[in-house]
Amino acid sequence: MEAVLEAPAESSSSPINVLVVDDDPTIRRTVAICLEQDHYRAQGAGGVRQALDLAERQYFDLAFVDLRLGSQSGLDLIPELQSANPGIRIVMITGFGGIETAIQAIKRGAYDYLPKPFEPAQISMLAQRALQSRLEENRVAELDRLGLKADLSSRSPAVQKAMALARQAAQSEATILIRGETGTGKGVLARAIHAWSGRRTGPFAVVSCPSIPSELLESELFGHMQGSFTGAHREQAGRVAQAAGGTLFLDEIGDLPMVLQPKILRFIQDHEYERLGDSTPREADVRVVAATHVDLKAGLMAGRFREDLYYRLNVIEITLLPLRERREDILPMARKMLEHFASENGRPVTRFSDEAEAFLLTHSWPGNLRELSNAVEKGVIFSTGSEVAKVHMSSDLRLRTAERRVGDDISLEQLEESHIRRILTAHRSLESAARVLGIDASTLWRKRKKYGIRGAEDPAALG
Fold first, then answer.
1. Which of 321, 352, 380 marks a domain boundary?
2. Which of the residues 14, 42, 77, 375 could staple to 429 if both were Cys, CB 3.0 to 4.6 A apart?
3. Which residues contact 61 (CB under 8 A, 6 or more apart)?
């Protein structure tokens, strides 16, 4: 079996695993070297059987698969890899880069394709796009799995009112702006609005504005033409085109770069756009739902957000309350999560202690549902019997609670920066670090930029 081609990884890191399947050892090593430069861990396989053997022994986040593997076709490997590694993103490598091959690969389940000859920048860009797509899908799936849909059947009168408004607004074609802190379920509500709308049978596309570098965000949204920028070796459709007939969810719209705001405004108004490198107007029948955790009106005053775009987005505004303002939902949600994690981990846990329930009710939950699920999961794992006690809860959560009681000699912002630096040092993956912190990866990305924290900076590390 071929040796592992990987960059050294710290024992505490969570590397992204990539499988490179090609019968040419030179191609395998070339792709692996490109991936190592972005801090991925690459393993090579020379054929179908070797690839499946590896995939059955460990999980791969991403795979680059050659179309021709001796007498076998890489197309046949796509469904088998997906069966062995659910959620894997597959990029097909081909020296026969016609559009028919690309269509076949994508119909079989490939995320994208890479024509030979290729350049290192193409490997990096495709890996970044594929993993970002996987992250967005996993974020929504994780929120669903953890019971965040409980938001839609809340005991809080204010949340019930917001859900009623969302159901009514979903029947229209109006643009909707969802406001709420991180972890309050904005992505889940956006998906619910799509499911309640007349577009429910169409696609639901997600673009996380802060998670994609500004220089790539326009291409991600609108697509690009061959040669429009370095690494653009073929025409690429964007998320707008992919969402035709359905809904485009712009997550954290407050982080949209100013240079792109007029283009988004024009698309919302006229449903028209141009791909990068092309002056030909295109049309797409897409309904836009946006979300933000920041005050866009403050962005207007600071000159970071266009007034005309704000009013075009804010036709209907729906606000999701943080957990600290809907405490009647905390215990029902926590109990549902406890049941889920106990089943998932094979633990005999059935309840929280009285002290643990009091703790759940009194904690401020700055990370909202994500932080709550993190605490409950750790409680289930570390419990020694049928009951989760307060002591079993997340050590990180207890640390933040204790830090808030520190005297006036240090600010909460300084404490936050220090804690984030410690967590990022221990986790190469932003998603892994964000899970420990009880926030989502896009929020951690913004905080890292805010505090000027370097290291694990490549957005492709989100995975």
1. 321
2. 14
3. 16, 17, 18, 87, 88, 89, 131, 134, 463
Task: Please report, for residues 145, 362, 376, the alpha-carbon distance to residue 330 in angstroms, rounded to integers and kept in the order given.
Answer: 17, 10, 11
60 half-sphere exposure, CB direction, 13 A CA radius: 32
Nearest alpha carbon to residue 188 among 238, 153, 222: 153
What Å distances lie between residue 415 and 52, 113, 367, 410, CA to CA?
46, 45, 16, 7
Q: Are 33 and 26 in contact (CB under 8 A)?
A: no
Q: How many CB atoms lie within 10 A of CB 358?
A: 12
Task: Give the Cα-Cα-Cα angle 137, 373, 256 (nearest 5 degrees).
Answer: 45
pLDDT of residue 104: 77
Find where tokens 């590390």 sit: 461
Q: Which amino acid is at 45?
A: A
Q: Where are the alpha helices (DSSP H) in 250-394?
A: 261-270, 296-302, 307-313, 330-345, 354-362, 368-382
Rounded Cα distance between 339 and 327, Å, is 20
Structural domain span for residue 101 = 4-118
By the 8 A CB rule, do 209 and 250 touch? yes
Quote the pLDDT of residue 373: 85
Pair (300, 172) in one structural domain: yes
Beta strands, E only, 141-279: 176-179, 204-208, 223-224, 236-237, 247-251, 272-273
* Residue 47, domain CATH: 3.40.50.2300
CA atoms within 13 A on the CB side of 245: 5
Amino acid at 42: A
Taking CA atoms, 145 is separated from 160, 249, 336, in Å, by 21, 20, 10
What's the total number of domains in the chain? 4
Residues in the chain: 463
* 148-152, 212-216, 422-426, 440-444: the lowest-pLDDT one: 148-152
